[in-house]
């Protein structure tokens, strides 16, 4: 599909991607193909659709993965708040960015930039219990089980993996 997209002056997408002023025209036939395959063919939406739904983390939180624009994202819809707090009053007080410490944790996007790769998906993940984000890989190892492996680089690469279970 990228090859079919051309700038008004005939440049290809790759050549024009660097310029902020580029405006793309897509032939009407290409638009028709895009619309028909995304609406009629569930096989194209299939891989990302496998992630869609509610997932319980080992800590007891629930993350809802759903479409957020062109890619899925995950929002925190349930969790165990800190002592003396409620779901509605819990703030992101452990965030390393002081400016974000007053935002609510309920509804917070904790999984974003989800992209398909050979083994599953890669994404960014945020852990409000610790207050930092990490690069992550997501793998459906069997139905109802999502392996989430987050890695950060300190002096060397440190990774942690957990299994999220689909909530029925």
Please tell me about this protein's structure:
This protein has 3 helices and 10 strands. It is mostly beta strands and 168 residues long. The chain folds into 2 domains: 2-40, no CATH class; 48-166, Lipocalin, CATH 2.40.128.520. The strands form 2 sheets. Strands 3-4-5-6-7-8-9-10 form an 8-stranded antiparallel barrel. Strand 9 (145-153) and strand 10 form a beta hairpin. The longest helix has 13 residues, at 28-40.
Question: Would you kindly provide a brief summary of this structure?
Answer:
With 168 residues, this protein is mostly beta strands.
Write the layout of secondary structure elements.
Blueprint: E1 6-7, H1 13-16, E2 24-25, H2 28-40, H3 42-49, E3 53-56, E4 62-68, E5 71-78, E6 109-116, E7 121-127, E8 132-142, E9 145-153, E10 157-166
What descriptors fit this protein?
disordered N terminus; 3 helices; 168 residues; eight-stranded antiparallel β-barrel; Lipocalin; 15% helix; 10 strands; two-stranded antiparallel ribbon; 2 domains; mainly beta
Q: Given the helix and strand composition, which structural class is it?
A: mainly beta
* Spatial order of strands in the largest sheet: 3-4-5-6-7-8-9-10
- Element order: H for helix, E for strand: EHEHHEEEEEEEE
Mean pLDDT: 78
- What's the story with the biggest beta sheet? 8 strands, antiparallel, barrel
Give Rg in angstroms: 20 Å
Distance between the termini: 36 Å
Q: Runs with pLDDT <50, length 5+?
A: 1-44
Per CATH, the class of the largest domain reads Mainly Beta
Number of domains: 2
Tell me the fraction of residues in β-strands, as a range.
35-45%
């Amino acid at each position: 599909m990228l090859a079919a997209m051309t700038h008004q002056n005939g440049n290809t997408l790759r050549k024009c991607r660097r310029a902020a002023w580029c405006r793309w025209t897509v032939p009407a036939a290409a638009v028709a193909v895009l619309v028909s395959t995304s609406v009629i063919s569930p096989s194209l939406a299939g891989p990302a659709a496998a992630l869609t739904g509610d997932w319980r983390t080992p800590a007891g939180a629930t993350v809802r993965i759903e479409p957020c624009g062109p890619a899925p994202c995950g929002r925190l819809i349930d969790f165990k708040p800190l002592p003396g707090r409620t779901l509605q009053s819990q703030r992101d007080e452990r965030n390393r960015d002081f400016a974000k410490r007053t935002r609510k944790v309920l509804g917070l996007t904790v999984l974003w930039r989800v992209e398909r790769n050979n083994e599953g998906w890669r994404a960014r993940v945020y852990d409000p219990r610790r207050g930092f984000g990490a690069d992550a890989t997501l793998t459906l190892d069997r139905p109802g089980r999502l392996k989430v492996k987050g890695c950060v680089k300190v002096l060397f690469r440190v990774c942690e993996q957990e299994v999220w279970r689909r909530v029925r």
